[in-house]
Each structure stands twice: as C-alpha cells, then as structure tokens.
Amino acid sequence: MSDQISFIWNEEKLSLLPEKAILLPEHHTLLIADLHFGKTSHFRKNGLPIPAKSAEADFHALNQVIRRYNPEKVYFLGDLFHSEENQEWPFLIKLLASFTNTRFYLIPGNHDLVSIPNGSSTNFFIAEETVQLGNIFLCHDPAEVPKNQPSICGHIHPGHRLKGKGRQSVMLPAFYIRQELILMPAFGALTGLVTPDLPTSTSVAIVSPSGVLWVPKRKFGT
C-alpha cells in the first residue's frame, strides 16, 4: 500500500505526502509550508527549555524529502523562518545550495521577517505573496487567496483529532481539502496543531505513522 494519496484536484494531479508536503508531479514541484526555522533558538533565548535537536530534526526532514522526490522547484508557502533573528539561515542556505538542480521559492508569510543576504544563494528566490501554477494558486494565508480561485495555503497548521474508546484521542497533522482550497499541515516540528473552522463536508487526510490516510467518510470526491 502506498504511503501517499494521489488524486486530481481542479484538473491538476497532486500527491499528499507522508512528509507533510504536496507533490505536483506534472510541474515537477514540491510544496512545503510553515517550517518556522529559528523557533527553537527563539524559545531558548526567551528561557524556554526547547531541545536544540528539534531544529536538527527539521533540517534532516527537509533534506530527506527533497532527495526522495528530486523536484525541479520547491515552493515554501510562508513562515520558512520564525523571527528576524535567525541563526539557522547559514545552515539552511548551505543545504539548499547542495541541490544544484532545484530552485527554491519563498512565498513570504507573516513570520518571515529575516533579512536575506543578497547573493547568498543562486537557487533561492523571494516570490510574490500569491503565485499561480497551472490551474491553482499558491499562498501563505488562506484569507489572501484570489476570489473564487483554487488555492493551496499554509499558515493554519491544521490537525485532526481521532477519538477512540472511552476518552482516548490523538491529534495528528492533517490536510484539509475543499474544491476551492487545500490547507497544508505545518512541516516544522514545533508548530502545534489547530482544527480549522471549516464545514464538516470538508475532506480530511491525516498524516499517521502508516502514511497519509483519509479520515472515514471524509474522502475527497465522495
């Protein structure tokens, strides 16, 4: 059984990946949202005992997903960074520069306040706040999507709570899919999870240890 889910959405083929990313195979493009690099050091600076290894885990996960799918383009859908002071920037740009056949684009999010040094990389670019790719639009905040246009966004850090017997429950990262909107889960480990305020008819796919799975009766297209 595949660990990802592939389907057609607004005439575009896409795959929801277990790495909490989206692959657009016909565009050779990988979408990643809300890494929040620098959040670990930001919390530690303010006295919160966050393990430094959590940042290392995000770097490792980013390296692995790019190597696995080998895209021509990667779009970061906002909040690549967490604050204006970012010790992780040199390490990130070194990592991205190692992928000589991939171009990286940042659609700025509300946390992307870092000043990116000019000429720091030949394959990293700042994009517009909204980017059209084929039949869809890419953006950070779903509140800023073009009217009546199918869009893929980040910002919300969506999750879905599964309930078991008694009071048992678990909250997992999730993709929320409607005909005009897809909300992506946050890629970063220290981002928290929120249940979006969307109609119950919205389709939901959770990211579980077994891969990406449709929530029962919440499969897109049924």
| Unreliable stretches covering 5 or more consecutive residues | 42-51
Tell the overall outline.
Answer: globular
H-E string:
EEEEHHEHEEEEEEEEEE
Say how many strands there are: 15
The helix fraction, in percent, is: 10-25%
Which CATH C-level class of one domain is it?
Alpha Beta
pLDDT averaged residue by residue: 85
Figure out the total of helices: 3
State the distance separating the first and last CA atoms: 20 Å
Class inferred from helices and paired strands:
alpha/beta
Q: At CATH's second level, what is the architecture of one domain?
A: 4-Layer Sandwich
Indicate the multimeric state: single chain
Radius of gyration: 17 Å
Strand content: 25-35%
CATH topology of one domain: Purple Acid Phosphatase, chain A, domain 2
Query: What characterizes the major β-sheet?
Result: 8 strands, mixed
Q: Brief overview, please?
A:
The protein is of the alpha/beta class and 222 residues long. The chain contains three helices and 15 strands.
How is this structure best described in words?
Strands 8, 9, 10, 11, 12, 13, 14 and 15 form an eight-stranded mixed beta sheet that branches. The protein has a domain at 5-156: 4-Layer Sandwich (Purple Acid Phosphatase, chain A, domain 2), CATH 3.60.21. It is α/β, with parallel strands linked by helices. The protein contains three helices and 15 strands. The chain has helices at 39-45, 53-69, 89-97, and strands at residues 5-9, 12-16, 22-24, 29-32, 73-76, 103-106, 124-126, 130-133, 136-139, 151-153, 159-163, 169-177, 181-183, 203-208, 211-214. Residues 42-51 have low confidence and may be disordered.
